[in-house]
Amino acid sequence: MFHKFRHHGPRSHESHHPRGGHGGGPGAPGGRGPRMFDAGAMRYVVLQLIAEKPRHGYDIIKELEGRVGGGYAPSPGAIYPLMAMLYEMGHVSISSEGNKKLHSITPEGQAFLDENRQMVDALMARLAEPQAGSRDSLRSVMHELKHVVIEKGRDPAASPARAEQIAAILRRAADEIRQLA
């Protein structure tokens, strides 16, 4: 669908294959389910995620998985080379944070996103589309719940009483679900 990725600046790689050679499609060895986007479209999505906040590769994989409710997770073999390419193109900068690489958007990367805002917004909306009544929508809600519980449970300002409140809410929810016919 998206075969060209316009490049700007001295780090342009016009010869980069638009599909990127990244696995993850159905039946791919070691794949993680069907591909949600081709490599060309995934470039926009990953760059948008980095524009939202600086991220490590693992953060991007987990964020994508979370946004689609855990039903899809791109492989590291797709994400890490893509992030390296975005760096080579000058769309992201890299800083070290321990033994991890933190990727941040550059002005060139932001300009590229701005030039392609309509497509970027459409791709990001596609991430958020649960299929009503499907296992994916249930998985999405469960994933959201997990993240909220972890976030509130790790809050340094949280008291032991907060943890007990969260546990009580979860117990009530589990009881209600058990009572469903």
TrEMBL record:
- Compositional bias (Basic residues): 1-10
> What keywords are assigned to this protein?
DNA-binding
Q: Where is the composition biased (Gly residues)?
A: 21-33
Query: Is DNA-binding a UniProt keyword of this protein?
Result: yes
**Hey, what's the signal peptide range on this chain?**
none
Instruction: List, for all copies, the residue spans of the domain called Transcription regulator PadR N-terminal.
Output: 46-114
Record-level Gene Ontology MF annotations: DNA binding
Coiled-coil segments: none
- Xref: InterPro entries: Tscrpt_reg_PadR_N, WH-like_DNA-bd_sf, WH_DNA-bd_sf
Annotated region (Disordered), positions in chain: 1-34
Q: Which Gene3D superfamilies match?
A: Winged helix-like DNA-binding domain superfamily/Winged helix DNA-binding domain
Q: Does the keyword Calcium apply?
A: no
The family database entries (PANTHER family) matched by this protein are listed as: TRANSCRIPTIONAL REGULATOR YQJI (PTHR43252)
Q: What is this protein called?
A: PadR family transcriptional regulator
What's the source species for this entry? Pseudoduganella umbonata
